[in-house]
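Q: How do we represent a protein-ligand complex in a form that can be generated token by token?
A: Start from the inputs.
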Amino acid sequence: MKILTILGARPQFIKAAPVSRELRKKYEEIIVHTGQHYDSNMSDIFFEELNIPKPDYYLGVGSGNHGKQTGEMLAKVEEIIVDEKPDYLMVYGDTNSTLAGSLAASKLHIPVIHIEAGLRSFNKKMPEEINRIMTDHVSNYLFCPTDTAIENLKNENVHENVVNVGDVMYDAVLYNKELAKEKTSILTELELKGKDYYLITIHRAENTDDEEKMRNILESFSKIEGKKVWPIHPRTKNKLKGYGINIDEIPGLEIIDPIGYLDMLTLEDQAIKIVTDSGGVQKEAYFMKVPCVTVREQTEWVETLENDANILVGTDVEKILDAVNKEVNPTYKEVFGDGNASAKIVEYLEKH
Ligand code: UD1
Ligand code: UDP
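Then emit the structure tokens for the protein with uridine-diphosphate-N-acetylglucosamine bound:
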């Protein structure tokens, strides 16, 4: 049995690492990298650190508007499907690479396996929401990370082969957390002791593409007391440059280039709190039991909101500050499975 896996963006490399490891025990896997993310610290570093097999195809699509980027991927993935004749095509999450892969396969009647299916923010202005809905509705196997995701699909009349296997990102965290402690020296490099800084990541289009929102977010960061570390996504860096905003002067703020996964896990684990708009980082904060503040109006990861483990604040300066300064004492539940999502996916595929 041959599975064609489509990857393209940073979080997909991380999600694919545990799944690919399990998949290859039973099946032949061909990896296609669309090239959506291409800087070495947004792509190569993850393949190296996480031992993800080298892609069999690199499409080199790169950046561009949604139509051009998705369209180019669609045409190129279609050609590969015709040549490789896979039995299944596997996609992850909600990026343009996910949409292109699932569309190409479904039109050629190749069954689509969607990992991290069923997530919804109920905000169709987000590019990710369109990608999720479209992908879920052409998928044949929908592996969900939570009960909420199952419920969302039920409400859209998607029933067949819908399974809650838990979250593959939890598999990745459990597998790499100890390794991260051994292998990274990021705290020393940044002259941090641990639990003496806030970790920031901001990259979602809904924030970065709105100058006023970005100015609010930055104003709140300038008012957070103490050290703040921000590995900045290239999208955000480019947007801020375009707005003529210089963040070098914000007191206590250390801007660094995007970092590898092991460094990131260490920085997450040792942060006082995490302030983010990332989907993956919200979950990792939960897995690591580090309080999180989410700078968005909605989250797909509603389970994390219980007991202030994650506080959803939008982009209002005062709300961000109040949440960052709030003393919280969350309790954490096993709502993302038991860390064996990847094995469960393969087991389900074997049986069905
Ligand atoms: C994409 C996903 C988003 C996901 C994010 C993960 C879509 C619609 N969005 O957003 O859901 O949360 O990946 O990080 O698929 N750039 C570089 N170097 C790179 C990659 C990007 O400089 O290696 C810059 C380019 O200026 C590019 C911009 O970042 O235009 C945005 O990249 P793109 O892949 O289009 O979207 P992301 O914002 O990364
Ligand atoms: N991440 C990383 N280095 C960074 C920033 C993030 O390794 O500099 C990891 C992070 O730990 C998580 C994933 O990238 O596993 C999240 O990806 P991102 O925030 O880009 O996208 P999203 O999850 O919002 O789609």
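The first strand starts at residue 2 and ends at 7. The chain has 15 helices and 13 strands.
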